[in-house]
Specification:
heterodimer, A: mainly beta, Methylamine Dehydrogenase, Chain H, 4-stranded antiparallel β-sheet, B: alpha+beta, Ubiquitin-like (UB roll), 5-stranded mixed β-sheet, 3 helices, 21% helix, globular, Xyloglucanase_GH74 (chain A), BNR/Asp-box repeat protein (chain A), WD40/YVTN_repeat-like_dom_sf (chain A), Sulfur carrier protein CysO (chain B), Beta-grasp_dom_sf (chain B)
Chain lengths: 351, 92
């Protein structure tokens, strides 16, 4: 049994490999040298997909069987000329047996077939009636999160910054904003149902009503599929942060709060991951082995992952290029001996 | 028909492997690009934006001339011409 961690950075990707003990790691790369590597996933068929981008040469999707040898997919997702929009980055990829879905900047979703070869825009979201009120966050106007209902293939959610969460109950044809209970951050004069800055989403692996949301303005939970949200921050030093991840085995949640949106670094220079073992009711700091002082690295929304082994591995990549990892569910941590470019995404794959 | 050569930056190796030069036969610059992306379709998205225009931060030289200084790409090419792609990013 092995664990592989794909680390996407501002200047390429790196592949970390270990056995089940997750004690000793090999580091390979850079893959895609010079390119932003913004997203990755494994499809149910076992192939891997990665999103890359360049300020000069645009954003594209790539496919691999082993995470090392990649081939660009011809004719990936693209806005039409008439839309007046451009794909600047591929922020998230979600794959099922039947289809592939990507979320992009400029914000939108594109639906591809299972082989990720033919694509169409999801007009129900991309041309939503509220679109005229959509405003970008600091990271751009990006559709960065997709989660699926484990029991209902027709229901899924999409998080867009700084617009909010949308839910579809018909497989992506139509979408409704789902942000009741969340403080608005960019209030529109007309479209009051958007203007919310979701940073990260997670869903319970069995209960499609139970959603978790790291928002710009706090940590939230929904017990009714996103119809309403409640704040759940007990134990957190700050409601501000970007990623949230959930271990499917234990249902433990992981987050990395930062000191407010003005500063965006760990409070007091003390890097800590936070864990909730009670579905978000309370949070505890995890600091054993993490930098305890002089650490001012942030963690971006895609840069936290769990491998779902037992006990689960937890992986955090920082804006300063450090990789912190735990092989025991977050109880203890170590930092890999590398300094990578700014880390944009981390994905963990266990075999 | 004249044979001209595209010189491509190493960053585009993710699209076409280690190939850095691609010769094509064409009568004009526009035709040369058309042949290039037909033969190497993964380059299409890197060179052209959604409007079909050359991406704004690409610097393309036809021999020594910046193609943006031309009135268009319907410019005749001659045997041995070189079309070079650079990234037009400067400063810090």
């Amino acid at each position: 049994m092995s664990a592989r961690v794909f680390v996407g950075t501002a200047k390429g990707a790196f592949l970390l490999t270990s056995d089940h003990s997750r004690q000793d790691w090999t580091i390979e790369g850079p893959l895609f040298p010079g390119w932003k590597v913004t997203s990755a996933t494994r499809t149910p068929r076992g192939t891997f997909l990665a999103g890359t981008g360049s300020f000069v040469y645009g954003a594209t999707l790539h496919q691999s069987d082993d995470l090392k040898n990649w081939k660009q997919i011809e004719g990936g997702p693209s806005y039409s000329k008439e839309s007046g929009r451009a794909i600047k980055e591929i922020w998230t990829i979600d794959a099922t047996e039947e289809r592939t879905l990507v979320g992009v900047d400029e914000a939108g979703l594109f639906l591809g077939d299972a082989e990720a070869k033919s694509w169409k825009p999801l007009g129900g979201l991309n041309d939503h009636p509220t679109r005229e009120a959509w405003q970008p966050g600091f990271g751009g106007l990006c559709a960065h999160s997709i989660v699926r209902d484990p029991n209902n293939t027709e229901r899924l959610w999409c998080g867009i910054s700084a617009v909010g969460v949308f839910r579809s109950d018909d497989g992506g044809e139509s979408w409704r904003p789902k942000n009741v209970g969340i403080p608005v951050i960019l209030e529109d004069k007309v479209h009051k149902e958007v203007g919310f800055c979701v940073h990260g989403l997670a869903i319970d692996p069995d209960d499609g009503n139970m959603l978790y949301r790291q928002d710009h303005l706090g940590m939230f939970r929904s017990r009714d599929a996103g119809d309403t949200w409640e704040r759940n921050e007990e134990g957190l030093p700050s409601g501000f942060g970007f990623p949230i991840a959930l271990d499917r085995t234990t249902r433990h949640l992981f987050a990395v709060p930062l000191k407010s949106d003005e500063y965006r670094f760990p409070a007091d220079g003390h890097f800590r991951v936070y864990r909730s073992r009670d579905r978000g009711d309370t949070w505890e700091p995890l600091a054993n082995g993490l930098p305890s002082e002089h650490c001012y690295a942030g963690v971006l929304r895609g840069a936290l992952a769990v491998d779902h082994l037992d006990p689960c591995g937890v992986y955090v990549g920082t804006t300063s290029g450090s990789v912190h990892l735990s092989g025991d569910g977050g109880d203890s941590w170590r930092t890999l001996p590398c300094t990578l470019p700014r880390i944009l995404c981390v994905e963990a794959f266990a075999d | 028909m004249p044979t001209v050569t595209f010189e491509l930056p190493s960053l585009l190796s993710i699209a076409i492997g280690e190939e850095s030069e691609v010769p094509v036969e064409a009568e004009t610059l526009a035709e040369a690009f058309e042949v290039l992306v037909t033969r190497r379709p993964t380059l299409q998205i890197h060179l052209f934006d959604e409007s079909g225009d050359l991406r704004p931060h690409i610097l393309c030289l036809h021999n020594d001339q910046n193609v943006r200084w031309l009135t268009g790409l319907d410019v005749p090419v001659a045997p041995g011409d070189v079309i070079t792609i650079h990234q037009a990013v400067s400063g810090g």
